[in-house]
Amino acid sequence: MQTSDHALAVFRAVFPPLPEHEVGLRLAHRTERRQVLTGDDPPNYVAVVHEAVLRMQFGGRKGMHAQLEYLLDASERDNVTLRVVPFEHGAFPGAGHTVLYAEGPVPQLDTVQVDRAHGPQFLEAEGQLTKHRAQLDRLEDLALTPRRSRDFIREIADQL
Fold first, then answer.
1. Which DSSP letter does residue 146 get?
2. Are 51 and 91 spatial neighbours (Cβ–Cβ below 8 Å)?
3. Angstrom distance (rounded) from CA 22 to CA 30
4. How many CB atoms lie within 10 A of CB 87?
């Protein structure tokens, strides 16, 4: 759920710097993944983000403001639920990792994608899925409601 400018700023912050062709591949992947949410018959998508993600100004103030507006627009779609874990809720499992848990009608085919500096890592073993599902359940317990999350994001955007 990133604008192209925001994703590009994140990829350019990686150390050691990524080769330009790698940046291009990662940006194309994010763009295609994002389009799944707006295509025909889009899947339901629940995003749980930490307040830190909303406050780190990758791409500067203008770029971050555009990113927050994009999140607010996306959160209004019927198939998207966006929830924020505020700083005040302290530490939580899996902090610092971007995780995509793709679940479907056949649980044995679920897949977890963990984004790392060296690229995405895909996990599908039952124990790994159980661990990540439990972490995501905990995050949802800590997160603000969707409505309060939108209000929270709006407050941050208004401060920029």
1. H
2. no
3. 12
4. 9
What is the residue-wise DSSP string for 32-83? HHHHTTTSSSPPPEEEEEEHHHHH--TTHHHHHHHHHHHHHHHHTSTTEEEE
Residues in the chain: 160
Q: Which residue has the tokens 């890592």?
A: 121
CB 49 within 8 A of CB 85: yes
Q: Find the radius of gyration of the CA atoms of the chain.
A: 16
Q: What is the pLDDT of residues 105-150, one digit of tens each?
A: 888 889 998 887 677 889 999 999 999 889 888 989 999 999 999 9
Strand partners, 81: 46
Rounded Cα distance between 3 and 151, Å, is 20
DSSP state of 94: T
Question: What distance in Å separates the CA atoms of residue 79 and residue 93, rounded to the nearest whole number?
Answer: 26
Question: Rounded to whole angstroms, how far apart are CA atoms 16 and 104?
Answer: 36
**Burial level of 34, CB count in 10 A (0-12/13-18/19+)?**
middle
